[in-house]
Every structure is written in C-alpha cells, then in structure tokens.
C-alpha cells in the first residue's frame, strides 16, 4: 500500500497572493496537511480580484490541496485557536506585508515559544536586514528591483514590459518548498527547527547568477539579448498564420541547419554559403530571421513545429491556453486535470507534475471556499464541542463557508 | 578555503550528478544546502563548460560563468559511462550515494545497463531522478527541446514583451530551472520519507510538463474560467505586462507601478500630487484603466517625470501602492538590501580567481546554505575520490586515464 511522501506533516499557511499559497499547494500535493488561515476581514488579496471570492481562477488554482480555517486573527480567542493549531504543526509559512505577523503575535520569535522545533519560513520582497524589509512583495516589483526585468526585453525596446505572469513569484514559491523540505529533513535528523528568511529579489537574481558574474567579475553591465543566443542562429520567435501566432525555433549545429533547410524544401537561400556555418549564421542573423519569418508567416505554428521536429530541429509553438489544451503530449501525460469545484463547477487545472514511483501523489483537490473547513478542523484537531463552535461563530471569531 | 561555516541542512547526503547544463541547477541547489554533490563528467568535459558568458570573455573550459555559477559547491570527477570499467565504477559510487540525477534522455541509462532497476539492486535506498525534455514516452518523446523552445511551450512567452511586438524570452534558462526546482522538491520529499518507507524511489521529470507548473500555472485555469457553455470564446491571451504593471519614466530612470485595487490607485494619485486629470472616477476601475492604457500612460508620465526613482518608491510605500525602480544589475549588486544581507559571497577559483557570486536567496538560523567552494576544474577530484574512497591505486588511475575511462 502506498503512502504519500509528506504524510503526517502539518503546515499552517499565513499566506496571500502567489508565493506562500503556491508553496502550500505543492506541499499539499505531496501529502501534507495544509491549513490556510483566513477571514472575510483579512482576505487573501487574490480572492478580491473578482466580485465573488470563491470564484477567482488564480486563487482556485494556487490554493488547491489545502483546507481553509476561517478565523478572525484580531480576536484573542481566534489567536488562541491558531496557537493551538501551531502547537500541532511542523511548518508555519507566511508572506503577509512586512511587520504584520509581528503585530498579530505570530512572528517566529512568538511561534517558537509555542513550538520550539517549528520550521518557519517568511517570504518577503527584500528580506530582513536592509532598508526595504517591510516593503510589500509583489512579484513584478521584485523582478524590477532585482535587475531581472532590465534584461527581459529586446535590445531595441526603450524599457522592459515584463509579462502577465507575476514572476519571480511562481519560482519563489518553489524555493520556499525546497527550503521547507530540507529544513524538515534537518529537523527529522537533529530535532532542530529554524527560521528561514527568504528575499524574493534574491530568488530572481539566483535564477540568472551568471549574468551577475558578468558585472562582478568582468565589470561589464550585462545587456539584454532579446530572443537571440550568442552561440546559436537561427534562435528566435517567428510569426505564423493568424493573429499573434508564433513559433520558436533554435538551431545549434550545422547538421541541424542542413536538416532545417531540407525540411523546408531547400530553398536557394538556405544553400547560401554565408549561412553554412555558425559564425556566418550569427553574423547574418538579421537576414536569416527575415528569411525564416517569411517562410513561417504563411504556415500554421503547430505544423511548423511538427515539420521541423520531424527533421530533428528544436521548434515549439508559443503556446496560449488552447494550444496547451490540444497538445498531444500534455494529453498523454495527463498534465491537465478537470476538477469539479462546488461553486465554480468543472474547470481545468494543471495536474500534479510529480512522478514518484513509491509515493505517487493522491489526486488533486479543489481550492477551499473561505472557511469551508472551519468546523471540521475544530472537531478533528481542536476537539471542540458543537456548542463551543457555535458560540465562537456567533461571536464572529470563527467563520464558515455559507 | 573557508571552512568555519556551519553545516547545511543536507550535510551528510551524497548526490551523484550526471547532468549537463540543463540539470546543473537542480544539483547546485542541493549542494548549496550542504549535500556532497559529485559532478561526473565525460573525460572531455561537460558541454556546459562551453556556455557563455565567459570570464574576461575568453572561451575556455574553466571560464564559463554559466558553468562556474551552476556547479559551485560540487566536487568533480571524470568518468566514461560507456566503457565497461566506467560502468563498474559508477555502480561502486552508487552503493554509497543517496541521490543520482541524470538528464540523458529516455532509455539511455537503461541501455548502458545503469537503469534504476539495476542500481536499485545495488542500493535499495537510492533515489534516482531522470530529467527529460518531453517525458519518457508519448508523441513528443523524440522531440528536441531548447531554452527558447521550452519557454515558448511553457505558456509564459506569449504573455512576455510588448503586445504589438514579438514575444520575448526571459533571461537565463527559465524552463530548465523550473524543471530543476521541481526535481529538487521531489528528491527532498523522497529523502524525507525514505526511512519511513524503507526504500528509495525513481523520479521522472519532464521539462515540457513541468515548466508551466513552475513559471505560470494560471494560464489554462484562467482560460478555463472564462469559458461559458455556448458562449463566445474569450479574447486570445496577449501580452498585458505593460497594461497591468505599467512602466513609467521618471527623473533618473524608470519605475514599475502595480495599482490593481481601488486603494492602490487612490494611493498612486496621491503619490503623484493628486492632479485633477487623474481624479476622474472612471480611472478608479482597473478594467477601464487596462482598456485605456495608452491614454492613461500619456497622462501619468507628466507627473512621474517630476520625481526620482527613490522618491516614487518610498512615496508608494508610504501611501500604499506598490512601486519599484527598474534597476540594472550593477544597481542591485550595490544596493543597500543586497549589501546588508551579504547576498553576494566571495568565491575563489583556481583559474578565474576571486569573484563575488550570488548566494542563496534565504537566511537560515540553524543550517544556512552557502557557497562553500568553487566549481570543480575538469577532473579536479579524481584522485581524492577514486584513490581516497574507491581504493583505486595511483598507477591504475593513470592507466584508466590513458584508456579513456576517466
């Protein structure tokens, strides 16, 4: 009989936005018992991005595989219940605005008095110690302040535009999970918990460390490369049939270049000697890109991808959601899953991508409604009577889903 | 070499690293946390040693910044896995290893006789992670990936850059790094439960499947939520970075503004001195602002250009709207935050000398991660590991080197 990897691990999520909620989702995917602390008065701001708090795509994606405990943390009785939950927990993760957990009495120094071996992670924009320790931690700000954004543009763009995705948030969440798991294992072996203070700007920088060495060791200001690569051409994103459809193509060897020419029917320009070797292709990259764009422009992106891949050349559709939904490999991998959420109904989500032979993850569970598991947690973990639960609900200390 | 550092959280674990540049980040993060990572390269060296940028822009196998950064903290040996002696040596190393990570592609290790079933027989506690581009099986099994192609397929690229222009690659190797961190998560979860279940396990990670989970898990879900039965198809997903998180020029550069809620917007108006043109009630609606982003942009820059980056950054914090400067890399390296946290760490490498490397993105109170040693030169630890641990004599080392095994 198989069990999950994190069976028996309990996590309290004092999270909002993307980073800590996404980290909780992943710990839940691996089998941890993750409890999100929230209330109508103190909502995860992603719940407020739509008129209906339980019907927000981003929230319901990122908050799967956890339960919601609706409790007003401004009340002393509410704090007491959360303190009791923390005493049973292995991990506390928080990314409230700088200083908020301290004012609520749930900072590391307070929590370790309740549970000395707790693994506590605080995810902040700039981290403790510097002048911006209390500044809010929205991914697009941290991409900006870390230098990441300055390179995320075409060389001729006057300034970077970034992306719809609030990166580095979704990578910071994985760094948080890595730290939590390594710290849990350290605690398993030594009995010691600890405090982990993460800076999301540093996550952005850590992802492209080699570019920082260009400055610290070569004394050069790193420049954006756009879609180009200094050792491969063609290497870019080319327009295809339809509106705003694109395919990415990269050629790293002369053999791949000859295969590329053959695949597209050996037009005369692909035989031009100046394109035969990599230095010539790099030197003439502008002309090369123009020629390829003329060829791709009348073709369907997916057909270009399959045709080139069939010839051994790396190519891929610049996917938007419907392309992902019709991607045969994604279907083969069951990489998307339909889940039936009690308010929203059946919707598609990315499936759990973990393939572990001995501890295969259990199926994904939908995100909780605000306060959906309040009573269940009161009974199961806090061993409270129905009377006590009702009383605290009447006093607005506890909150259940309507 | 500084050795006074405290132990890392993973000190005591040994990792055999058979990856090239695509998986180097996975094992680097384990090494940063204290694991003894042994990078095993073919005798001619990992192809990752040829990846630019280079120290002093000199292409040289010990001077690739990409290699130096992503292989710091590891020890390095050479081994030809395709030779009979090489296979035997790998099996010996596997006996005492906790983790093995490879990214050769489907079936390669099995064809060498070094698949998980074989290695599990030698060491049942081994955790073996295989990273592939498009999975072990399926219609794209033999497709080729690359940095830009994998990013294109991840669903983030279509949303990156200017709406009217070409989708733009994120710097670095984002799809590979998203895969590396997913592999780390699985490896650490497998280590955590290994004693409880009494055995190691096999982990399979595909770049194509994992990159969207790592970089932008919302794309399909947002689309799925906007579909109504029998209703019109939603607008195709575009590049909205400049509309959602606009970038404005100021006195000394650019700032980025994240005004999503009405309160954020009201705070931004105060930061800019409450000019009449921005007080029209329509502007309080986020959707209206995104829809009229060009008009709004023209109005707002008149006011942002009166302030410096730091004035706007600090005023945004005071008033309640997230604003951040767009810094280049030198400005971040020299920033008060990075300096106060000692994020950059001095590392001494035998060929490139001392340099300031980005450290780990967090401070830990008990078992801090760190950069404890430089990336290995090719075969730097052959004698240390082969003679010191596997009891191969120095004469045999010489013979095996000449035979192309090491």
Key traits:
heterodimer, A: 402 residues, alpha/beta, Rossmann fold, formyl-coa transferase, domain 3, 7-stranded mixed beta sheet, 3-stranded antiparallel beta sheet, 17 helices, 15% strand, elongated, B: 406 residues, 2 domains, 6-stranded parallel beta sheet, 18 helices
Overview of this protein structure:
The complex is a heterodimer of chains A (402) and B (406). Chain A is an alpha/beta fold. Chain A folds into two domains: 10-207 and 352-399, 3-Layer(aba) Sandwich (Rossmann fold), CATH 3.40.50.10540; 235-325, formyl-coa transferase, domain 3. Chain A is built from 17 helices and 13 strands. In chain A, the strands form three sheets. In chain A, strands 6-5-4-1-2-3-13 form a seven-stranded mixed sheet, sandwiched between helices. In chain A, helix 1 (19-29) links the parallel strand 1 and strand 2. In chain A, helix 6 packs across helix 8 (200-206). The radius of gyration of chain A is 25 Å and the shape is elongated. The model of chain A has no long low-confidence stretch (mean pLDDT 96). Chain B has helices spanning 24-32, 65-70, 84-95, 108-111, 116-122, 147-153, 174-197, 207-215, 219-226, 241-244, 262-271, 286-291, 293-304, 309-319, 329-333, 336-340, 382-387, 394-402, and strands spanning 14-17, 36-41, 75-78, 99-102, 127-132, 202-206, 247-250, 253-257, 323-325, 344-349, 353-358, 362-364. With 406 residues, chain B is of the alpha/beta class. Chain B has two domains: 14-215 and 341-402, 3-Layer(aba) Sandwich (Rossmann fold); 245-329, formyl-coa transferase, domain 3 (2-Layer Sandwich), CATH 3.30.1540.10. In chain B, the strands form three sheets. Chain B has a six-stranded parallel sheet with strand order 3-2-1-4-5-6. In chain B, strands 7-8-9 form a three-stranded antiparallel sheet. Helices cover 38% and strands 14% of the residues of chain B. The mean pLDDT of chain B is 95. Chain B is elongated. In chain B, helix 1 (24-32) crosses helix 7 (174-197). Chain B has 18 helices and twelve strands. Chains A and B meet through helix 2, helix 6, helix 7, strand 6 and helix 8 of A and helix 2, helix 6, helix 7, strand 6 and helix 8 of B.
């Amino acid at each position: 009989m198989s069990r999950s990897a994190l069976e028996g691990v309990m996590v309290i999520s004092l999270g909002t936005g993307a980073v800590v909620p996404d980290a909780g989702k992943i710990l839940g995917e691996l089998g941890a018992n993750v409890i999100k602390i929230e209330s109508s008065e103190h909502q995860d701001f992603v719940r407020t991005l739509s008129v209906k708090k339980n019907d927000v795509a981003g929230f319901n994606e990122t908050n799967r595989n956890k339960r919601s405990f609706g409790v007003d943390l401004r009340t002393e009785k509410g704090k007491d219940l959360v303190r009791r939950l923390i005493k049973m927990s292995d991990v506390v993760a928080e990314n409230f605005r700088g200083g908020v957990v301290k004012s609520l009495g749930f900072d590391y120094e307070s929590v370790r008095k309740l549970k000395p071996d707790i693994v506590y992670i605080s995810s902040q924009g700039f981290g403790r110690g510097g002048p911006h320790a209390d500044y809010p931690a929205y991914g697009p700000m941290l991409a900006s302040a870390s230098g990441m954004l300055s390179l995320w543009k075409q060389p001729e763009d006057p300034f970077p535009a970034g992306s719809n995705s609030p990166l580095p948030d979704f990578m910071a969440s994985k760094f948080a999970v890595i730290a939590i798991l390594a710290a849990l294992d350290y605690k398993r072996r030594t009995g010691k918990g600890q405090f982990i203070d993460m800076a999301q700007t540093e996550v952005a920088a850590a992802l492209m460390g080699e570019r920082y060495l260009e400055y610290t060791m070569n004394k050069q200001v790193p420049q954006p490369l756009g879609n180009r690569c200094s050792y491969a051409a063609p290497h870019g994103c080319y327009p295809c049939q339809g509106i705003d459809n694109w395919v990415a193509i990269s050629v790293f060897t002369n053999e791949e270049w000859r295969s590329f020419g053959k695949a597209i029917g050996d037009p005369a320009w692909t035989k031009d000697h100046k394109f035969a070797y990599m230095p010539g292709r790099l030197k003439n990259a502008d002309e090369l890109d123009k020629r390829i764009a003329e060829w791709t422009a009348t073709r369907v992106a997916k057909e270009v991808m399959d045709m080139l891949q069939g010839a051994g050349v790396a190519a891929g559709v610049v996917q938007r959601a419907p392309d992902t939904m019709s991607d045969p490999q994604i279907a083969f991998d069951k990489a998307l899953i339909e889940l039936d959420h009690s308010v929203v109904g059946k919707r598609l989500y990315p499936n759990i991508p973990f393939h572990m032979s001995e501890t295969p993850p259990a199926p994904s569970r939908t995100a909780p409604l605000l306060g959906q598991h309040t009573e269940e947690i009161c009974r199961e973990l806090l061993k409270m009577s129905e009377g006590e639960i009702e009383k605290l609900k009447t006093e607005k200390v506890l909150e259940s889903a309507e | 070499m500084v050795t006074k550092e405290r132990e890392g959280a993973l000190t005591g674990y040994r990792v055999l690293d058979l990856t090239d540049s695509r998986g180097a980040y996975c094992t680097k993060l384990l090494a940063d946390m204290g694991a003894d990572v042994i990078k095993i390269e073919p005798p001619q060296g990992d192809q990752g040693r040829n990846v630019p940028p280079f120290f002093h822009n000199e292409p040289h196998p010990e001077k690739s910044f990409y290699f130096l950064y992503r292989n710091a903290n590891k020890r390095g040996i050479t081994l030809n896995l395709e030779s009979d002696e090489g296979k035997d040596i790998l099996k010996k190393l596997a006996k005492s290893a906790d983790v093995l990570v490879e990214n050769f592609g489907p079936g390669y290790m099995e064809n060498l006789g070094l698949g998980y079933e074989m290695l599990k027989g030698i060491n049942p506690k081994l955790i073996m992670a295989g990273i592939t581009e498009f999975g072990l099986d399926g219609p794209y099994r033999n497709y080729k990936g690359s940095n830009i192609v994998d990013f294109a397929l991840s669903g983030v690229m279509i949303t990156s850059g200017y709406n009217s222009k070409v989708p733009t690659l994120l710097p670095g190797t984002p799809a590979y790094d998203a895969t590396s961190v997913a592999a780390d998560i699985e490896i650490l979860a497998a280590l955590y439960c290994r004693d409880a279940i009494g055995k190691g396990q096999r982990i399979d990670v595909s770049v194509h499947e994992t990159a969207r989970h790592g970089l932008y898990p919302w794309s399909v879900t947002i689309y799925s939520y906007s579909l109504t039965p029998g209703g019109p198809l939603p607008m195709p997903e575009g590049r909205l970075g400049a509309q959602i998180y606009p970038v404005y020029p100021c006195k000394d550069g650019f700032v980025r503004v994240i005004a999503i809620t009405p309160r954020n917007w009201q705070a931004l108006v105060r930061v800019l001195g409450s000019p009449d043109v921005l007080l029209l009630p329509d502007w309080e609606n986020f959707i209206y602002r995104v829809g009229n982003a060009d008009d709004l942009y023209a109005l707002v820059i008149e006011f942002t250009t009166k302030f410096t980056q730091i004035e706007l950054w600090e005023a945004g914090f005071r008033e309640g709207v997230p604003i951040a400067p767009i810094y280049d890399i030198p400005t971040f390296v020299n920033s008060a935050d990075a300096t106060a946290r000692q994020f950059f760490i001095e590392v001494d490498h035998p060929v490139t000398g001392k340099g300031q490397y980005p450290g780990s993105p967090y401070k830990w109170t008990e078992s801090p991660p760190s950069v404890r040693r430089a990336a290995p030169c090719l075969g730097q630890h052959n004698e240390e590991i082969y003679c010191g641990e596997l009891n191969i004599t120095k004469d045999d080392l010489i013979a095996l080197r000449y035979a192309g095994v090491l």
